[in-house]
Design a protein that fits this description.
2 copies of one chain form a homodimer.
Chain A (H helix, E strand, L loop, with lengths): L1 H11 L1 H12 L11 H17 L3 E5 L6 E6 L7 E7 L19 E5 L2 E5 L7 H18 L5 E7 L9 H7 L1 H4 L3 E4 L11 E6 L1 E10 L5 E2 L10 H10 L2 E2 L4 E2 L13 H8 L5 H6 L14 H6 L3 E10 L8 E2 L2 E10 L5 H14 L6 E4 L5 E2 L2 E2 L5 H14 L4 E5 L4 H10 L3 E5 L13 E3 H19 L1
Parallel strand pairs in A: 3-6, 3-7, 7-20, 8-19
Antiparallel strand pairs in A: 1-2, 2-6, 4-5, 5-21, 8-18, 8-20, 9-15, 9-16, 9-17, 10-14, 11-12, 13-15
Helix pairs in contact in A: 1-4, 1-14, 2-4, 4-14, 5-13, 12-14
Chain lengths: 461, 461
């Protein structure tokens, strides 16, 4: 009965809830770009005010980078103590010309799959974060209090490597201890299939610059005898891959990678993943990863080395007959199993250095971090309770899935706070997160809020 | 006697001559960048006014792009009729942060090799162009008239592919006819060695974009199954080259390429080219071109395929876990012998298209031109006269050299006006043309002016 009242309150409050999300989406909190530091502050302050408006003791906590938001409600004794995590920072928006509107002037748009909220951060992660906050708001409105003790923990550096996260968790470990972490930053395996992520890939970031001649050269005077860093970097990037097998060709790259057990493969096969939709929605006719592995394995259970940025020379209007002095490359690896980020970084750097031509130098960016893969403790009873709650809301059996993405905080919750995490998210693969025209389905937002209400109810029964 | 008077006049007028060049250098006439169109106009107007100040009937001639400057002096009958060509447009200046000063705020600087004029265009080609104009100014000051009939022809689109050149030459062929074209846009084979260029490499420009997914993708959600255009373009660029031989691996690339005759190789060996200076001055310890060919052959007599620009994905601060939708590449080839630009373009495009992965597309820029290599008619008596004049000025035997660069206008003078060209230039390899900190030695400027006075004297004797 009491749950139904909360669900009804959520339904009747949907429009104001979307308006609140829009307010948050209008703040351009791009954490990776120092020019937007003030906006990150503003987003944190908006969240503090919003939490306070539903009776949560919330504060902005200063860090050397973007601030954290921490809020507490409830006392020892009233049921389990959960810590909810989300991040209020967003990805950069370039290339701007590919957006159908100002990324920070969000709007409701009608699409063939129903209404969507269009704007940077609508799905990753402001919209998802607010599903939990709105569930708490509705619960408070109906019951005058929260269902259990809850700590809110919002980060503003997730999209820029979370430099302040480890020190902050370490310094505030006592305050942040709880029974279970809840995270809403993941997607559904396919439209309408409620999903709990049971494993995440880790991440390694690196960046290098190849330096050839001391200065840019004229391609007439030096074309021929001249070493061209763009040719050099192309050869080296190409050498990262074995085009026959689709594998990464860096020596020792696959150390610590395990094959997926048969029973898990069977379970994934039945989890409702729509391979055609996943591939075709972005213009692919087939998977392009390691031969001999399914699309789902390539995405969830196999490591990658991706080039995220490559640049050098002239890219303006017209042409310039130049041999540039430098060429640059940004890479990220997705890690699985027991792959060690630090060991992998050494292997990749050796691969590049071993292949440099005479007269070429490489310079590495040493400020980029790495984090291992993580596996959830799905044997805990809360996972079964959440699975039932999600199945009830979506009228579809909820499934345990892998995730291709990385959420480093999950590993730190375990290592620093001794906290297991449960990852429930409502994003869809076509949300275009990190891309132009990011959106979040109104259905994801609405049923996401209802799902959290059901999960809180189940956890506190 | 009369020549000495002109040379003395040049010496005493050097400082004002440098001031005049500085005025021209302050005009940022970057023709490849539409934003600088007005500056190109301004540079043309400055030249018209300067030519008029020494009694030359000069006009700015409008084209669809940057204007031409045409000036006439003298009548039929007074000796040979020469056409002097130079270009007033300059290369872009990026990367700006590598300049030691504002590229368009030129100044005299002291260096270990003597005084230099620092600034964009000081060497390529405003400084060289003005050596001839100043020689004419001095001749007029001493004699009250020019030594012979001279047509001045200055272009403003040389650094952006000369789109208006062929139509202009065709429409004005009658007006621009002469006995011989003089061009000052080349360099000396090494410091202090006067050089006449006897062959130039041709040029082919092309640009392509590799398109993978329909939109930028999240490297977590799509890393593995996703086709990455940056990986694709790196593999394709790497495939342009055979790293064993240093040759270009595009099928049929070397059709029309001829080996350099023994006697010419012998002459080049004695032409005073300083290989160590050429390589070490830009940070090379060795030549990086085709194995089995000397540095000079690689630069003057062998074709190249150079990547001038390569870009895609995120290149801002921090990192972005993106698989970009597109990757871009700008290339230029240097052509020798009888290589056909149009045929070569088809071979290169086929090479790329044959190597595309499924789900990858390529889009070509079809606005980029090509021009074949050219060989000068050094059997004409004017070449011997000029060689003697240059040897007298520099107290060093003048030499016939090849050139790695391309000056398409030379081919058009021949094909459209039936005009042979003589290329005499005073640039040095360390002038950093097309690079940050471009400079022109004051010695090049001063002795360049004197050299033209001697050549005009010799041609009119």
């Amino acid at each position: 009965m009491s749950l139904d009242a909360v669900l009804n309150q959520i339904d009747s409050d949907l429009t104001p809830a979307i308006d609140r999300l829009m307010e948050l989406l209008r703040i351009p909190s791009i954490s990776t770009d120092p020019a937007h530091k003030e906006s990150c502050d503003k987003a944190a302050e908006w969240l503090v005010a919003d939490l306070k408006s539903i009776g949560i003791a919330a504060e902005k906590r200063v860090t050397p980078g973007c601030p954290m938001v921490v809020g507490h409600v409830g006392e020892d004794g009233d049921g389990p103590h959960v810590l909810f995590y989300g991040h209020y920072d967003v990805q950069p928006v370039d290339p701007l010309n590919l957006w159908n509107r100002d990324p920070f002037d969000p709007a409701i748009e009608d699409t063939e799959n129903g209404q969507v909220i269009r704007g940077r951060g609508s799905s990753d992660d402001k919209g998802q974060l607010m599903t939990f906050v709105e569930a708490c708001r509705a619960w408070k409105a109906v019951h005058g209090k929260m269902p259990c003790r809850i700590t809110f923990f919002f980060e503003g550096e997730e999209e820029s490597g979370s430099p302040s996260l480890i020190p902050f968790l370490t310094e505030n470990a006592a305050e942040l201890k709880a029974d279970l972490a809840l995270v809403c930053d993941t997607s559904m395996v396919s439209r309408g299939v409620p999903s709990i992520a049971s494993q995440l890939r880790g991440m390694l970031k690196d960046e290098f610059t190849i330096i050839g001649p001391r200065i840019d050269l004229h391609s007439g005077h030096y074309g021929g005898p001249g070493l061209n860093p763009l040719r050099e970097i192309s050869r080296i990037v190409a050498s990262f891959y074995d085009e026959e097998t689709g594998k990464v060709a860096v020596e020792g790259f696959y150390e610590g990678v395990h094959e997926v057990p048969e029973d898990q493969l069977r379970q994934w096969a039945g989890c409702g993943f729509d391979e055609a939709e996943y591939l075709n929605s972005v213009g692919y006719t087939r998977p392009h990863g390691e031969k001999g592995y399914s699309t789902l394995e390539q995405q969830w259970a196999r490591p990658t080395l991706e080039v995220n940025g490559l640049w050098g020379g002239y890219n303006g209007a017209g042409s310039k007959t130049v041999i540039p002095s430098q060429a640059h490359c940004k890479i990220t690896c997705r890690l699985v199993g027991d792959m060690d980020p630090d060991a992998l970084r050494r292997k990749i750097r050796k691969h590049v250095e071993d292949r440099l031509s005479p007269d070429a130098k490489v310079v590495w960016d040493n400020d980029l971090e790495g984090s291992p893969a993580s596996v959830m403790n799905i044997s805990r009873p809360e996972f079964e309770a959440a699975r039932t709650a999600l199945s009830d809301e979506w009228n579809r059996e909820a499934v345990f899935t892998g995730m291709g993405g990385s959420i480093p905080v999950v590993g730190y919750f375990k290592s620093i706070l001794g906290l297991d995490a449960m990852l429930v998210g409502f994003a869809n693969d076509d949300d275009a997160i990190h891309s132009p025209n990011e959106k979040y389905d109104v259905q994801s937002f609405h049923k996401g809020i209802r799902s959290w209400a059901r999960i809180l109810d189940a956890l506190t029964k």
